[in-house]
Amino acid sequence: MEFVNPEGLRLDGRRPMEMRQLRAEIGVVSKADGSAVFEMGNTKVIAAVYGPREVQNRSQQSNDQALVRCEYSMANFSTGDRMRKPKGDRRSTEISMVIRQTMEACILTHLMPRSQIDIFVQVLQADGGTRSACINAATLALADAGIPMTDIVTSCSAGFLNGTPLLDLNYVEDSAGGPDVTVGILPKLDKVTLLQMDSKLQMETFETVMQLATEGCKAVASYIREVLLENTKQLESRRGV
Amino acid sequence: MRDAILKGHGTAEMYDRLVATLCGVVERVNKLVYVRPLRARYKPEIGDIIIGRVIEVAPKRWKLEINFSQDAVLMLSSMNLPDGIQRRRTAVDELNMRSIFEENDVICAEVRGFQHDGCLHLQARSHEPQPTSKKPYLMRSSSLFVDNVCHGTHWVMKK
Fold this sequence. Notes:
The complex is a heterodimer. By secondary structure, chain A is of the alpha+beta class.
């Protein structure tokens, strides 16, 4: 199947190095300490953060740092066919663990000992790149909750089809069975906190694809910064201080 | 230049630069630079008067939820007894704890301090704390002054 036509356009009309449209909204769940909705094209994800709060399971309490828990689930209606088991299946458990490790790397947990931070992410619409959208949404929600972090974490995926590196794969491109590299970075510090890949790639090609995904992450980072700045200004003006 | 700046809350020094670790407003007071978050949880100080909701009645103590990173503890010995007499708390007092406060009651108390293990301890105020069985409408801990408790109504105003 042709994923990049002779003119150089993809199935949805994008160029190979073009990302999907990003949209973010902060403060959507009023009861949560922090929350955000993040959209990458048709993929739509909602994240809610509760904490730092009292640890519910005493045996897991840590005296010198906060406990970070994460739960990833997909809404029944998020995919084309209604999903039967939204969470608890292997993929969700794996992604929950991945997101938890990624976010834990940037949260300053030693500032909040004996407490727990819960991150809940739910996919409302799945069209490829749900993992990345979840991490981006979680970053926004953590910033909204006022939880100290060393840097924001942003994530983006890239693949390699028809001999071309493609940025930000959607579901159709992802299901093609080609390689899919997901990268999560701390943009200011230029550190990688997440690197996952499906399928196989040659070493040189892998470096190109990973570089492309990293560029995508940096683009997401500048968008997220804009959104946070705008949100902070609005909150501050509403307070009238 | 770096020596002239005091790093406050929400800042950290990384690679020779002072960066913000919180999303908020940067405040500068003389040499102190800190970031004030707009939506973080409450940070109790000693002497603050807080309102908390009882979530558990434990042996010789009540556990209160106060919108902080941990729950606060109100010891039975730190509470004023209904009859106002100062005496040693007996086993009977312990059994009657539920008649004073039970789950979902709202208590107004003062922060006594942090224990060595980081637990937050409260003490009763000089006049009797008034429990209310009403579902709290706005339950955020902040520096509040509770005044004019009459007919079971709490009037709460800022200090």
